[in-house]
Structures are given as structure tokens and as C-alpha cells.
């Protein structure tokens, strides 16, 4: 038995913490006080804690600003909202909803616009309410006794001084931007054990536990100590075990929170208070987490496992969970990866007399789907294990243990996990129609220089034949009127005649630049007068098989946009076979000419340009009524105005998506060096192709060099790989060598670099959205610690 003196310091600490909470100054919220949302989508003043550290009020959803959660959040953090509690996570409310502390019965009542009560804690006779500096919202009686508090009814987060008693649980949100109840919960059980469960969405069915403290002492509690540790405490006050610890970060200097994140991992975060007060953007720092490896811990007999069905779980270098689809599969919903992956082909059928016809097996090392086998063979070699599945119309995958055992699996797969700790090999059955990379087993660096991409002779021959035919057909039709519908192109744009533009450009005499689709010329509104240019006139090539498609794409896509970081379209010419588009003139030229000149542009100017491009792409992807994928983001297609504000231009290759689309099929587009890997797999493409290109541009802007420099030594020739190597080796200073301005701002250099590396990940699902990219660049969103190596 331990000596009683062992418990004395802990007892004193508990008493001091209690006194500190009880003695906090209350900003009393009197009866009849209320808060409402407004029809404009904003919110009125919230109820703040005495120090202003926490706020209680309405927050708009990040995905829909016209719906609101009643919430408690950290009020002092700049450019970010970290929610810690909400009672209506399953039912966000529209504008004109309200919360009121009623005068007749002292109830806290959340009501919709019609006045119908949506939620109440059920604690009548309150004399007042208060938002405490601990982050706890309380309803108190006239004698100051607590009738109800938010700490007793947590959501997915706990704070210092908070306790989870027997029967209390927290439930993770569904995804990063969806606060609905998700797939995981942490429960403090009556038997004293702290247990993590996976649960079904939306029923809440509880699967088997995937982590437990294994400490059985009835009436134990989980206590978040002010010292920075989260401990399992016995009824007599002894520490049974520690869930997480961040005791090196004093709660007087750091905000602390413990959150069960949407991926099922409980993480302990801290945020420096001085940074928050100064208006800085440090972001939440990850200090500790449980379980250490959810991919290995979470193996269930029912359900999909840590990731969705047909996907697999792995970890990056900082133990951050990533879920991925196997080769030949793609996400059911890229924004809701917990829904798993679907095959990009029709599943095998036993109707065929030859089961293997039309299918092939893809070998993936260190991947396992450990449960739900329907057949097993022993003794068998790897080749026969692969062939057994290929010849079986029921089999969707086979697993080989590297020794003598082989298992066959039906669709769908569950509990997928991938890592160096796995010795098994998985064979996935896919259609022969899937254009698979030559080696899907191991990600290898492909050193492809711009002038070394060689197409097969058959493709070249077919291309020549088709192109020749189309050009002949086009030339034969040149004398005929070929007028497109101006209303389709843009009724609000000026329709120029060819003669007007010929005069404006002085007979197309001053060339600004040229590309695959056409040539750009300087234009003047008054060409007879000398002065500064006013227009940039792009003349599409006359003899071009896709001229009308390129022209329509450019006019329709840019004509419906209005953003300060997109070039403004003034009009077009659609006369006979003549196709021209007219833009405002950008006096500072292209980013390429500015960035790759002899003198290095100022650091702050480069930062401004990065942020501007990101905001322009975010607008195209997330804020337009019709989502636009640019498909050709590169420095040559970013123009600079007189104040060096970046403007994304050249929408000739853009792809417009319908409102219900997230991906599209299209041929390879873009410019070598900036093209995302999925283009070469002939798979569906999404807005993530622009994210990849943007990541390349960020690296070029950071280090003022092109993404490919053949004259450099081999390890530096390809910028992406060199940057990744330097980052992983802790040699970021080598990247900015000689750039004194950047070296004086290494904090932002590292942040921008990490964002760029996440953007250029080979798997589109690992790349952030442009909305997330913008927030991370601005410091409004924390960045995942370490991007996987390229």
C-alpha cells in the first residue's frame, strides 16, 4: 500500500484547482438575457468570460454561413475559431434563431426562428448564468451553487480543470468541417476503465473497443490537470495512468485542449498565449496523443476499421493518420473519406466462362486487410496466391504472408492498413481497362525532364492522322461563316469586330507573348495616340482543330468570374473563323518573367503574390456558382498589375464542373513540370490538379528558381524532390542560401514550404483544398506536422 503522503500533493493540487475555479470572477448573465443570429449571416455580441479567453454564442458553420451552432470557443485566437462545445451539433439552426435565459423559470433555452425550443439542459430555477475563464458555461442558483454546466455535457473536447466522471463520454465530429457526431467516442465507464470505441454512422451502434486504459477501479475519473496532464484518477485520488501529458507547456503560458479528433485519435494540443495576444498565428501544437498507432489498434470484426471500406490506413512521419484508396479505386466522396473507396471498374461476375478475362492483379507490398477472409490455402507460393484470386470470380483480392499462407477476400475490404510493420503482400483485382502505372508497388521518383517525355509511336501516328484530317476539314470550311452564339459566350461582354481589334493592336504589331493556343498582343483604346497600353488581345490560332472549344472555354469560364486575383475579361471577337479575347492590360508582365529574372524579387512581394494566387484559385474552386478547374496553373499564366498584385489568366484549358460534380474525365492538359500525376494515369481529375500546380509555383516563388534546372547537379535538378530531401534532412537553410530576407523570416518560409509539400503529394486525397491552403498560408489553420516524402 502506498504511503498517504504520496497523495497529499495531488490532493492539494485538486483543492487549489477547485478554489481557483470557484473563485473566478463571474460576468453574470441575468435573466431575460438573449443572443440571436441575424439574417445577414453574422452574429451579435457573444457572452465572454471575464478574461475574454472564451466566448459563448452562435457560430456559423464553416461550410454554410447561413446555418449556426450554439457554441463555446477560444475567443482570443486570431484568424481561427476552435470550437470546444456545442449542444446542437446534429441540428444547426438558420438565421433568426436565439438562445435565452428565461425570466419565468430560469431555463436556458435554444430556439429556432419560430420560437420552438430545440435544446435545453433541463436545469430550471437558475438565478443567472456565467461564462467562466476555464471555458465552462454554468447555470447557477441564487446561492451560487451550480445547477448545470457545459463541462458535465462535453462534445469532443475537454479543457484544464474539466473532469469526465463515470458514464461520461465525448464523441468525435464526423469530419474536419462537419461537427455532426462522427465515428469514434471516448467513454469513462462505470467500472473505472477509460475506453475508445468506433461507432456506426448515423445509428451510433458501438463496435468493439480499439484502445483502453485497462484500469478497473469503480468510480475512477479522467481529470485534466492544470499542470498539463490528463490522468485517470482513482476514488482515493491516486493516479492510475496518464492519457496524455504536456506538462512542459505551462497552462499560464499556453492554452490547452484535449480533443477526440474525427480520425479516432485523442490529441493534446497547446497554443502560446503570448502569440494570441500579440495577434500572431502560431497554430495549435500537437504534444501527445492516444493511441500511438490507430492503424494497428483498430481492427474490428464489424465495420470498416480506421478508414472506410476498401481504403487503408497509414501514418506519416509525425504519426498523422492518412487514408488512401488502393490502385484502381477512388473515393466515394473525396470530402468524406470515411465513406471509403469504390472500384473504377465493374466488379467481376461469375457469368463469364473465363473469370480471369478482362482483369489483372496489382501487387502492393506492406498492405493488409486482416479480417473477413472467405478461403485460405497452405502451403502455397506467392505466384499461385495471385493466380488463385484471378481465376476465382468471387475473389476481389488475395493476401500472401510471405511464407506459405494465402487468403482470399470478397468485396468490400475492411480494416486496411499499410506500413513497414506489415510483412504481407496484397493482390488487388482490377480491370484491364485501368491504365495502371508500371510499378504500383513502390512509389519511385520519376525523373522526367520537359523535353524527355516520349509518346509511343502508335499514339503519335494516330495523333498525326486525326490532326491532319481535322485541319483539312477546318481549312475547307474557312470560307463559310462559322459564328458561335454570343449569348452563350457572355451577353455582358463587349463583342469586338476583327477590324476594331486590328486597329487597337496596330495591326498586331506588338507581341506580348505566345503559347500553344495563341499569341497575345498589346492593345490601345486610342491607337492613334502615344501612351500606355490598355488592352491585352489574345489571338487564337486560326488553324486549330479545337479552336472553338478553347475559345468558348476561355470566354465562358473567365466571363462569369469577378475576383481581384483573376484577370478581367473585357470582351471578345467572334467573327467568321476569327477568335480573339480581350483582357485588361497587366503592366508588370508575367510572374515567370518577374520571378526568373537576374535580380531576386523582394521577399514580402513574393509572399503577397503567393497569397494572391491562392485566393484566386480558392475563388475558382469554392466560391464560383460553377466550379472551375483551371488545368494550366504556371508562372506564365499569372500576370502582375502595376502594384504587383497577381492575376490568374489564360483559361483556354479550363474545365467547368456541374454543381453535383467533384471530378471529371478529360485528356491530359497543362504544362510539363506543373502537371499532377493523375493526368498520366488516365483517371478522373478534380480541382486537386490545380492544387498540385500551385504547390510547384510556391516552391518556385520561395526559392526563385524554375522547377526543372537541367544544368544543376542531379540532386538539385528537380525542385520538388530537392525541397523534400532538404526538408526531411533539416536543411531548409540550404534552400534559401543567399536570400537574406527569407532567412530572416524562417518561420514563414517553413510554413509555406510545408504547405507546398502537402500540395504536391502524389495522391490527390492527401492534398489540401485551396480553401485549406489559403488558411494555412495565412496562418489561420494549423498545418499537419510533416508531409510524406516525395
Automatic annotation (TrEMBL):
Its EC number is 2.7.11.1. It is an enzyme of class 2 (transferase). It catalyses: L-threonyl-[protein] + ATP = O-phospho-L-threonyl-[protein] + ADP + H(+); L-seryl-[protein] + ATP = O-phospho-L-seryl-[protein] + ADP + H(+). It is found in: Membrane. GO terms for biological process: response to other organism. GO terms for cellular component: membrane. The keyword Glycosyltransferase does not apply. Residues 1-23 form the signal peptide. Residues 506-781 form the Protein kinase domain. Keywords: ATP-binding, Disulfide bond, EGF-like domain, Glycoprotein, Kinase, Lectin, Membrane, Nucleotide-binding, Receptor, Serine/threonine-protein kinase, Signal, Transferase, Transmembrane, Transmembrane helix. Coiled coil: none annotated. The keyword Hydrolase does not apply. This is Receptor-like serine/threonine-protein kinase. It comes from Dendrobium chrysotoxum.
Amino acid at each position: 500500500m502506498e504511503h498517504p503522503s504520496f497523495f497529499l500533493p495531488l490532493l492539494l493540487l485538486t483543492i487549489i484547482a477547485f478554489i481557483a475555479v470557484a473563485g473566478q470572477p463571474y460576468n453574470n448573465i441575468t435573466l431575460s438575457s438573449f443572443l440571436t443570429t441575424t439574417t445577414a449571416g453574422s452574429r451579435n455580441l457573444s457572452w465572454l468570460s471575464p478574461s475574454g479567453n472564451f466566448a459563448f454564442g452562435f457560430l456559423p458553420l464553416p461550410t454554410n454561413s447561413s446555418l449556426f451552432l450554439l457554441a463555446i470557443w477560444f475567443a482570443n485566437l486570431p484568424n481561427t475559431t476552435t470550437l470546444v462545445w456545442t449542444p446542437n451539433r446534429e441540428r444547426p439552426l438558420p438565421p433568426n434563431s436565439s438562445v435565452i435565459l428565461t425570466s419565468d423559470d430560469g431555463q436556458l433555452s435554444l430556439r429556432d426562428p419560430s420560437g420552438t425550443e430545440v435544446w435545453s439542459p433541463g436545469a430550471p430555477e437558475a438565478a443567472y448564468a456565467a461564462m467562466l475563464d476555464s471555458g465552462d458555461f454554468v447555470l447557477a442558483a441564487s446561492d451560487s451553487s451550480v445547477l448545470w454546466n457545459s463541462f458535465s455535457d462535453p462534445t469532443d473536447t475537454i479543457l484544464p480543470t474539466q473532469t469526465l466522471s463515470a458514464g461520461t463520454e465525448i464523441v468525435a465530429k464526423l469530419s474536419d468541417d462537419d461537427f455532426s457526431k462522427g465515428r469514434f467516442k471516448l467513454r469513462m465507464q462505470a467500472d473505472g476503465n477509460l475506453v475508445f470505441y468506433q461507432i456506426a454512422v448515423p445509428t451510433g451502434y458501438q463496435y468493439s473497443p480499439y484502445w483502453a486504459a485497462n484500469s478497473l477501479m469503480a468510480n475512477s475519473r479522467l481529470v485534466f490537470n492544470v499542470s498539463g496532464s490528463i490522468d485517470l484518477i482513482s476514488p482515493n485520488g491516486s493516479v492510475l495512468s496518464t492519457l496524455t501529458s504536456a506538462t512542459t507547456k505551462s497552462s499560464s503560458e499556453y492554452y490547452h485542449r484535449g480533443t477526440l479528433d474525427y480520425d479516432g485519435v485523442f490529441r493534446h494540443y497547446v497554443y502560446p498565449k503570448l502569440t494570441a495576444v500579440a495577434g500572431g498565428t502560431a497554430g495549435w501544437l500537437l504534444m501527445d496523443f492516444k493511441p500511438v498507432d490507430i492503424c494497428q489498434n483498430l481492427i474490428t470484426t464489424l465495420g470498416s476499421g480506421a478508414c472506410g471500406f476498401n481504403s487503408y490506413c497509414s501514418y506519416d512521419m509525425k504519426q498523422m493518420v492518412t487514408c488512401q484508396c488502393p490502385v484502381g479505386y477512388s473515393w466515394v466522396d473525396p470530402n468524406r473519406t470515411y465513406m471509403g473507396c469504390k472500384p473504377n471498374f465493374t466488379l467481376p461476375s461469375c457469368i463469364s466462362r473465363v473469370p480471369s478475362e478482362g482483369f489483372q492483379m496489382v501487387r502492393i507490398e506492406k498492405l493488409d486487410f486482416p479480417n473477413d477472409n472467405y478461403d485460405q490455402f497452405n502451403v502455397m507460393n506467392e505466384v499461385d496466391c495471385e493466380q488463385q484470386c484471378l481465376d476465382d470470380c468471387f475473389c476481389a483480392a488475395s493476401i500472401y504472408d510471405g511464407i506459405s499462407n494465402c487468403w482470399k477476400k470478397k468485396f468490400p475490404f475492411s480494416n486496411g492498413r499499410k506500413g513497414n510493420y506489415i510483412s504481407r503482400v496484397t493482390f488487388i483485382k482490377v480491370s484491364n481497362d485501368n491504365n495502371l502505372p508500371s510499378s504500383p508497388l513502390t512509389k519511385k521518383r520519376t525523373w522526367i525532364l520537359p523535353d524527355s517525355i516520349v509518346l509511343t509511336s502508335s499514339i503519335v501516328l494516330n495523333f498525326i492522322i486525326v490532326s491532319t484530317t481535322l485541319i483539312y476539314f477546318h481549312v475547307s470550311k474557312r470560307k463559310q461563316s462559322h459564328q458561335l452564339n454570343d449569348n452563350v459566350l457572355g451577353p455582358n461582354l463587349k463583342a469586338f469586330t476583327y477590324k476594331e481589334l486590328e486597329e487597337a493592336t496596330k495591326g498586331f504589331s506588338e507581341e506580348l507573348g505566345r503559347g500553344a493556343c495563341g499569341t497575345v498582343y498589346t492593345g490601345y483604346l486610342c491607337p492613334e495616340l502615344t501612351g500606355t497600353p490598355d488592352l491585352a488581345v489574345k489571338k487564337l490560332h486560326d488553324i486549330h482543330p479545337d479552336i472553338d472549344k478553347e475559345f468558348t472555354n476561355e470566354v465562358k469560364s473567365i466571363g462569369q468570374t469577378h475576383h481581384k486575383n483573376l484577370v478581367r475579361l473585357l470582351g471578345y471577337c467572334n467573327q467568321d473563323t476569327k477568335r480573339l479575347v480581350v483582357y485588361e492590360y497587366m503592366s508588370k508582365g508575367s510572374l515567370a518573367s518577374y520571378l526568373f529574372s537576374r535580380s531576386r524579387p523582394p521577399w514580402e512581394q513574393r509572399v503577397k503574390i503567393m497569397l494572391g494566387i491562392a485566393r484566386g484559385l480558392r475563388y475558382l474552386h469554392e466560391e464560383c456558382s460553377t466550379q472551375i478547374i483551371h488545368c494550366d496553373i504556371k508562372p506564365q499564366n499569372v500576370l502582375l498589375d502595376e502594384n504587383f498584385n497577381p492575376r490568374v489568366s489564360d483559361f483556354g484549358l479550363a474545365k467547368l464542373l456541374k454543381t453535383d460534380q467533384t471530378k471529371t474525365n478529360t485528356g491530359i492538359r497543362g504544362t510539363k513540370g506543373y502537371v499532377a500525376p493523375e493526368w498520366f494515369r488516365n483517371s478522373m481529375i478534380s480541382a486537386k490538379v490545380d492544387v498540385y500546380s500551385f504547390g510547384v509555383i510556391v516552391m518556385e516563388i520561395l526559392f526563385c528558381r524554375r522547377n526543372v534546372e537541367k544544368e544543376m547537379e542531379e540532386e538539385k535538378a528537380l525542385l520538388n524532390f530537392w525541397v523534400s530531401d532538404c526538408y526531411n534532412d533539416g536543411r531548409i537553410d540550404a534552400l534559401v542560401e543567399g536570400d537574406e530576407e527569407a532567412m530572416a523570416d524562417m518561420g514563414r518560409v517553413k510554413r509555406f514550404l510545408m504547405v507546398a509539400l502537402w500540395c504536391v503529394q502524389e495522391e490527390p486525397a492527401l492534398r489540401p483544398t485551396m480553401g485549406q491552403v489559403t488558411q494555412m498560408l495565412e496562418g489561420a489553420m494549423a498545418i499537419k506536422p510533416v508531409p510524406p516524402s516525395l
